[in-house]
Design brief:
With 199 residues, the protein is an alpha+beta fold. It contains 4 helices and 10 strands. The chain folds into 2 domains: 39 residues, no CATH class; 143 residues, Nucleoside Triphosphate Pyrophosphohydrolase (Alpha-Beta Complex). Helices cover 20% and strands 38% of the residues.
């Protein structure tokens, strides 16, 4: 913590049932030089990684669909969300994590992954940094049916979609997950697949 304009006064754990929710009291120096005391809460769920698998020959991508309670209680009628494969690091480095998560969730054992960037996804309240990857996949790399880890109570449907279909779903609101939209836009911007995105 190198910002001399911030002084942490105290922190209090409000909950550590699933992940850790803390309340921080701190002083922040304003532009006029005065100090203002503020109170904020921060949710620490660890850092994560996400990946978009794409196939240049078939012009397809691999996505998943699963139930997400927070979306269900905030306007998503079914709670089902189409998204890119992702998972928490669990003390692994991002590359190790995303290879493991890819095999668990999608059934594909991938070798070469490309790290494209890392982003704070909800910096107003959540500490998480998410590491973004892309990787090519082929049918030869499919080693199981995927679906997630049973001990984590995951029930994940694997979707292989034409990129055009995925882009259409993003445009019409069927894909509403931020990390997935970002990765699909990355593929579009960098021309990883040749699909006509304007159709």
């Amino acid at each position: 913590m190198e910002n001399e304009r911030v002084k942490i006064i105290s922190s209090e754990v409000l909950s550590d049932n699933w992940y850790v929710l803390k309340k921080f009291t701190f002083k922040y120096q304003l532009h006029d030089g005065s100090w203002q005391e503020q109170v904020r809460e921060a949710y620490d769920r660890g850092n994560g990684a996400t990946i978009l698998l794409y196939n240049k020959v078939k012009e397809t991508v691999i996505l998943t669909r699963q139930f997400r309670l927070p979306t269900f209680i905030n306007g998503n009628p079914t709670g089902m969300l189409v998204e890119a494969c992702a998972g928490l690091l669990d003390k692994e480095n991002p590359e190790e994590c995303i290879r493991r998560e890819t095999e668990e969730e999608t059934g594909y054992k991938i070798n070469d992954v490309k790290r494209v960037f890392e982003l704070y996804m909800s910096p107003g309240s959540v500490t998480e940094i998410l590491y973004f990857f892309v990787a090519e996949y082929s049918e030869e790399q499919k080693v199981n049916e995927g679906g997630g880890a049973e001990h984590e109570h995951e029930n994940i449907e694997v979707l292989e979609l034409p990129l055009k279909k995925a882009i259409s779903m993003m445009k019409n609101g069927e894909i509403r997950d931020a990390k997935t939209v970002i990765l699909l836009q990355y593929v579009m911007l960098h021309g990883l697949l040749k699909a006509d995105y304007n159709e």
